Amino acid sequence: MLNFTPLNQPESLAKMAYNAIRRSILSGEIKIDETYNEVHIAKNLGISRTPVREALLELSSQGLISLLPRKGFIVKKFSSKDIEEIFEIRSALELATVEKISHIASLLEFDTLDEILKSQCCAAKDHAHSKFVELDRSFHVALGRLTDNSRIEIIMQNIRDYMHLMGLHAVELGGRMDAVLSEHKTLLNAVRQGMTMESRVLMSYHLKQSKEAMLQTYVTSSSHSKIREDSQ
Predict the structure, then answer these.
(1) pTM confidence score
(2) What is the pLDDT of residues 21-76, one digit of tens each?
(3) Which of 85, 126, 170, 210 is 20 to 30 A from residue 159's alpha carbon, by CA?
């Protein structure tokens, strides 16, 4: 006889702490160049250190943060190798994605992508960097969903937080948000018209420009970590 755990249980404190810390990381509230103290986080969340420690261990296992013995944690700062590896994966997936959907474009609906682009335009006008990056991720995941290949979407979702963190600071570069919008619009137009080779070229260009922006942001940064004390 099966013995499942009931599903109506409230989330554990560790899970709630995980969600709260992850949201703060992806929104940029937790800065990439600062060190954060476990005790300080627990006090802010109004809980004990134990669930916070569990949450931090989970975030560390996912590669979003690095734990510093007796100091706290810092948000993962990507190396050039990290960025190259993520974009190697993205290039393989996303070039195949636009090739496939451009072949069947006449059978597809692009309303979701159109709405995402409209929302991105609004986010760019408002200089809402975190929202813009969230929508950027949604744009690429939505393209993958059109392939009707669930594994492409799963892989894109698995690297979504890396994409978000890498993009969050890259879009702060002057003119990058406008450039991303232009690249997205041109790419979507080519895909919609079934222009397979042009779609591949445009996606390759878009990913290359994004990678260069991220390399500029993360690799050349000279910021130093600052320890956030409990009194802050």
Answers:
(1) 0.79
(2) 998 998 888 887 789 999 999 999 999 999 999 999 999 998 889 999 888 899 98
(3) 126
CA 196 centroid distance within chain = 27
- Domain range for 71 is 13-76
Q: Do residues 73 and 56 lie in contact, with contact meaning Cβ atoms separated by under 8 Å?
A: yes
- Residue from 181, 215, 184 nearest 86 by CA: 215
- Where among 27, 47, 76 does a domain terminate? 76
CA 189, 190, 195 angle in degrees (round to 5)? Answer: 150
Residues 134 and 23 sit within 8 Å (Cβ to Cβ): no
CATH of the domain at 66: 1.10.10.10
Tell me, yes or no, whether 8 lies in a domain.
Answer: no
Per residue in 124-173, pLDDT (tens digit) is 999 998 899 999 999 999 999 999 998 888 888 888 888 888 888 788 88
